[in-house]
Design goal:
The chain has eight helices and no strands. It has helices at residues 7-31, 36-39, 53-62, 80-111, 117-137, 145-153, 156-180, 182-205. The longest helix is centred in the middle third of the chain and has 32 residues, at 80-111.
Amino acid sequence: MLDFGSLIYRIPAFLFAIAVHEYAHAQCADSLGDPTSRYSGRLTLNPMAHMDILGGLLLVLCGFGWAKPVEINPRYFKNPQSDMLKVSLAGPAANLFLCFLAVLLWRVMARFGLLTGGVKELLWWLAQLNVWFAFFNLLPIPPLDGSRIVTMLLPPKQAWDFENFVGQYGMYILIALVFTGVTSAIITPLSRFYLTLVSTLLGFII
C-alpha cells in the first residue's frame, strides 16, 4: 500500500529531481548552441516549468513519474548525432550525481550525529527517486531519454523504423509497463547496484 505519509518528503524530492534533470538537458543543449530551451522558459531550476500532470499523478499513485520533455532542435548542433547523445545523457547523469550527493550528505551527517529523522527521510527519498528517475528515463521508450539514445545509435533506416513504430504507442507502452510492474523489475536491481556501489565507495572515505 502506498504510504501517503511519506508524500511530505517524496514530493519535494521528486520536484527537485525533475527540475535538475530537465535543467541538465536544457543547459547541455544551450551550451552546444541550441537556444530553444532558453526561449521556451525551460532553462530554469523551477520545477513548475518542467512538471507533467500525468507524470506527477503517477508519482502519487505509483511512487514515481516523469517530467515534461525539454524541446531540442538538433539543427543548431555542429555535430547533431553526438551532441544529441550528450543532451540525452545529461539528464540521467545529473540524477545519478544528485543521488551520489544525497548519499554523501547522509554519510557526513551520520558521521557527526546530525542525521535527524526528517532530514534522514528526505535524503533517503532524494537518493531513491534520483536513481530511479535516472534509470527510468534510460528506458528505450518515447518520450524517455532512452529512446533518443537508441535512435542516435541505430543506423538511419532502423532509427526511423523504431521511431515510427514505438513512437506512436510509446506513452501507452510506458503506462502499461509501470502498472504491470515491469519497470520496477528492471529498475530495482540497477538502482540497488548503484546505491550499493556509491555507499561502499563512500564507506571507504567517510
